[in-house]
Amino acid sequence: MSQVTEVKEEIIAEVQETAKEAAEPVAEAAENVAAQAVTELSEKAEGAKEEAVETMADLKDELEASLKQGPPTDDPVWARFEELLASKEAIPVKIEAVVKGGVTTTIDGIRAFIPASKAALSHVDDLETLKGLETEAVVITAERAGHKLVLSVRDALRRKEKANRAAAMAECVEGAVMEGTVDSLMDYGAFIKLNNGVSGLLHVSQISYERVAKPSDVLKEGDPITVKIIGVKDGKISLSKKALEEAPARKERAPRGDRPEREPREGERERRPRREREEVFNYKETGKASTSLGDLLSGIKLD
Asked: Is the pTM of this model over 0.85?
């Protein structure tokens, strides 16, 4: 082996020894860091485990206490139902199913019951016809403890109907001319359904200036008609068609003295001419005469 080769091998051995000595502290430091990290993680995991066990135990106690007290009083859904119960505000609903004694719907995730007697404005023979109907209802029962929610469609529709009638009645003022339809006929007049939804009476005497024996002689149900409001009292509306017609000209009557004498009818006695008024003097004979001065002067007063 040459001298050069020997020198080369010695240099390589020294470099390897130096690298080994330098790597030992790094490896030892890395092992220390890893061991410390594992220790810290284990301690944190153990603490978390103890904390979790403690939290579950506390929660269990709280749950048991809340069950004894009943449902939570801060439930926002039932708080809203209670507000709707107090205000009677109508809310939109959709009838979903038919059950015994009524129908059901769902509001904010809560199933609500609508009795058959309150499912519509009037009686419904077949409740199946209401399935899928979108309407309005008001809350009439909201029991938070028993999760009992009862609604009424009828009450909501009646309130709406009443409000609409009040608005329509406000339009019906005396003197207003309105369009309508003959709704029904009676012997004493006709009921007219005005275009705003309210009804009024057209009395037989207000149909025309010409004499009308029965309303059915000149009107029929379903006829369009224009009328004038001549009175509104206690929610009742009086109408007139005659008021929109031109009044016929009145015939002037001749003075009494210029009227021709009426011919006597058959069997009637001829009128006697009027007697001229005669002056009548009431005189009564006393049957007694006197010429005495006292009698002559008895009726004379002297000042």
From this structure: no
